[in-house]
Specification:
The chain is an all-alpha fold and about 260 residues long. It is built from twelve helices and no strands. The chain is about 80% helix and about 0% strand.
Length: about 260
């Protein structure tokens, strides 16, 4: 009986997908756009706050400089803890319905901001761990040829930290594909929102959300497979040859510029 019921559900699910294919595809497109865009923006935000969190306070720093650095580190810690420690659905409700009267943003704008800021908090910790996993000698070597802190971070440290953190960064993209489902609470037409609309039309919730579950599974498995291919490519010596060449070129250019 259970098997017959399952087969009936699959048959009904296939029928619903064929009938409402356009709505499902529209939701898939929006889910992927938001997920990918928010992952990229979140990476940029994460780089910024990871840099703030790793600011070093030297003994010879002046009092005002120390206070300023402490303030930046506290700001980074508060941002990371708040957005990692609260559900994205709560963040969505607060940032959209709470701030919309003041900022007047659309659901799409709010969605990108919400997912990007949430992702940025996780990316900050990922990048921080990636930076701290590198050998200190690389940073010291960069400083020894005259590079200041910011230039050494941008040219030498961050590219390698991102490479080492790529599996975790890719995982955040996969997580975002699933987490965008909470954006239905602010009216964003992602996959789950479209599924709710379909289910409301046909009043067959089991079959409709079976379709939704299969689509999410296909999306995550496909993206994961692509990320693994890229990861293997990066793990090979040739996979990072472009970055290695840019490092070498950077050192040559910097030396030609007069640094000793």
């Amino acid at each position: 009986m259970f098997i017959l019921n399952a087969l009936f559900n699959f048959k009904g699910a296939f029928s619903i997908y064929n009938r409402y294919k356009v709505m499902f595809l529209f939701g898939i497109r929006n889910t992927l756009i938001i997920s990918l865009s928010a992952t990229i923006f979140g990476l940029v935000i994460g780089l910024f706050f990871a840099s703030l969190k790793l600011i070093t306070i030297q003994k010879h720093d002046r009092i005002l400089s120390r206070l300023f650095k402490y303030g930046l580190k506290i700001l980074a810690n508060v941002y990371i803890e708040v957005f990692r420690g609260t559900p994205m659905m709560v963040q969505s409700m607060f940032l959209y319905y709470g701030l919309r009267p003041t900022l007047g943003w659309s659901p799409w704008q709010a969605a990108l901001i919400i997912v990007s800021v949430n992702t940025g908090a996780y990316m900050a910790e990922i990048i921080r761990a990636g930076i701290q996993s590198l050998d200190d000698g690389q940073y010291e070597a960069a400083r020894s040829i005259g590079m200041h802190h910011a230039l050494a971070m941008v040219i030498i440290i961050l590219p390698q930290a991102i490479k080492n953190s790529f599996p975790a960064i890719g995982n955040e993209f996969v997580v975002n594909i699933k987490d965008t489902s909470v954006l239905n609470v602010i009216g964003v037409s992602e996959l789950f929102f479209q599924s709710l609309a379909v289910a409301g039309n046909v009043f067959r919730f089991t079959e409709t959300f079976l379709v939704t579950a299969v689509i999410y599974l296909i999306l995550t498995l496909t993206v994961t497979s692509i990320l693994r291919i890229i990861e293997k490519r990066l793990d090979t010596p040739a996979g990072f040859i472009g970055a290695s060449s840019s490092f070498s070129g950077a050192f040559k250019v910097f030396k030609k510029g007069g640094a000793t």
